[in-house]
Amino acid sequence: MSTAAILLATSLIPALAAPLPPPEGEVLLRVTGNVDNPNVADELHLDRDQLMALSPRVVETQTPWTEGVGRFEGPLFRAVLEAAGAESEYVRVLALNEYEIEIPVSDLQEYDVILAIKRDGEAIAVRDLGPVIVLYPFDEHPELLNETIRHRSVWHVEAVDVP
């Protein structure tokens, strides 16, 4: 086998994420279902510090539900799935108000979708759509301003289920 073939083959093997310890702070997000790296029973529970340690990003964008440009911070959604050791074609996002929707993982690969936990430097309170918001980079990709993506842009997120 050539060196190029070996490099290609090994680059296709996903890096195995080391299991995270149980959270020390308030749990903001649970990843349930097909999770290979749980830290509480068979789920991955994440607090604010753990979330911000997973490929943190800043997205400055307007959203369909907030006024003006906001500076949102949080981990890449795909990095959270990698930390959970979760693989699927889609995930189910569940909100505190029992709203749920399926999001194709291809969205998370194509766009830098974050799980926003801060806006303008402050934690996002439940009364302000928090504690976690699925945030697409709307200003960077105007094609995302459509009905389908608006439905996938869940606020009040409490869990991500991986079938």
TrEMBL record:
Species annotation: Billgrantia kenyensis
Pfam families per UniProt: Oxidored_molyb
Alphabetical list of InterPro entries matching this protein: OxRdtase_Mopterin-bd_dom, OxRdtase_Mopterin-bd_sf
Domain Oxidoreductase molybdopterin-binding: 62-133
UniProt cross-references to SUPFAM superfamilies, sorted A to Z: Oxidoreductase molybdopterin-binding domain (SSF56524)
Keyword annotations of the record: Signal
Domain of life: Bacteria
Highest classification ranks of the organism: Bacteria, Pseudomonadati, Pseudomonadota, Gammaproteobacteria, Oceanospirillales
Name recorded for this polypeptide: Molybdopterin-dependent oxidoreductase
Signal peptide: 1-17
